[in-house]
Amino acid sequence: MDRRVVEDLIDGRLSWPQLKEIISHPKDPARFQVVMEVLRERLGWQEPVLLPLAEHLYVVQKGSERVVRCDCGCEFGDYRENWKTKARVFVRDDESLLREIYPQMMHSDPQWMVLREFYCPGCFTLLEVEAVPPGYPVLFDFQPDIDGLYEWLGLPLPSTASE
Questions:
Q1: Which DSSP letter does residue 65 get?
Q2: Residue ranges per domain, the chain?
Q3: Per residue in 39-54, pLDDT tens?
Q4: Cβ(138)–Cβ(117) under 8 Å?
Q5: Do the bridges between strand 65-70 and strand 57-62 make them parallel or antiparallel, or are there none, so unpaired?
Q6: Of the N and C termini of the chain, which has fewer Cβ atoms inside 10 Å?
Q7: How many alpha carbons fall within 13 Å on the CB side of residue 97?
Q8: Reported pTM
């Protein structure tokens, strides 16, 4: 896959027909490597990025540890632990807070569902929103098998310069 197309894919600049063509065809085996190369260059971190976890979040190899890191460099700890527990959280749990983003009669009943907004404590970027019943535990989206992914792709795991 062309590097410029990958950059446009990452930046959300592809048109629907372009995106549909990518989705409809077999995956380019080199695309993961190109995506990782683009991310490493853009982020400019000394430590290698192992995997994009979500928009603005990455799993990074930091010495012998694998940590979740935001674009701004703020770290959320071990990737096997829920990064959301270290984020700043804003809960929309009453009608006035829900009305800030929804028109009247278009939001949920806050006794049945609240919105939890998770922000990076370093740059205050909105990282994720959960719509859950009040008091519901914080969701842990997924725990990637990084070693298995790289093995499946037939790629060596990136290592830090200090290793």
A1: E
A2: 1-44
A3: 999 999 999 999 999 9
A4: no
A5: antiparallel
A6: C
A7: 12
A8: 0.88
Average pLDDT on 15-21 reads: 93
Element (H, E) at 146: helix 146-153
* Residue 34 contacts residue 6 (beta carbons within 8 Å): yes
d(CA 49, CA 44): 10
DSSP, residue by residue, 69-132: EETTS-EEEETTS-GGGGSEEEEE-SHHHHHTTS-TTSSPPTTT-EEEEEE-TTT--EEEEEEE
In this structure, the chain runs to a length of: 163
The total of other beta-carbon atoms located within 10 Å of residue 105's CB is: 6
User: What's the pLDDT tens digit per position in 52-69?
Assistant: 999 999 999 999 999 999
Look-up of token digits 């290592």: 159
Coil vs helix vs strand at 53: strand
The closest of 159, 160, 90 to 130, measured between CA atoms, is 90
Give the number of other Cβ atoms within 10 Å of residue 61's Cβ. Answer: 20
Q: Running DSSP on this structure, what letter comes out for residue 48?
A: P
